[in-house]
Amino acid sequence: MSILKIITIPDKKLRETSSEVTVFDKKLLDFIDDMIDTLRSKPGLGLAAPQVGANIRIILIESRGVKDEDGNVIYENIPLKVLINPEITKFSRDKIEMEEGCFSVPNVFGPVTRPKKIKVTAQDRHGKKISINASGLLSRVIQHEVDHLNGVLFIDLVEDKTKLREIRTEEEIQG
Ligand code: CO
Q: Domain containing 95: what range?
């Protein structure tokens, strides 16, 4: 188990289309464990394999939840999800704007409008097919991470670039 190095822009690997995972072996399980260690070592909600320099279709999502001083939920709790070869098969027509950030675009945050709800099919770490209906924070993070597999970064989706903010905080959504 080890913490992997996260690559940042302008590394070209962040702009490639990643390949499908076809071999579900011990090497893959070890790599996923390293991705989990890496995600848990940072204040973030998701991680995609290209962010650690591997252009293969694997994403992780996990949130331990964040509450403000009054106990109001800022980020809900999401148990660890490992999605291999994820494919978003349905997007809701309803959209919502939310602030995003990314480990690979350090200290930059901005508002991104995305569909509220999605349906995702994927495989688990043993290759078994799974299907998820996602809304809220889970939907948001899955969409951000799947974009990484297609070489897309959240900054591409911020329509008004004047709304990109450069800040240093460990409290906001990153993935
Ligand atoms: Co990201």
A: 12-174
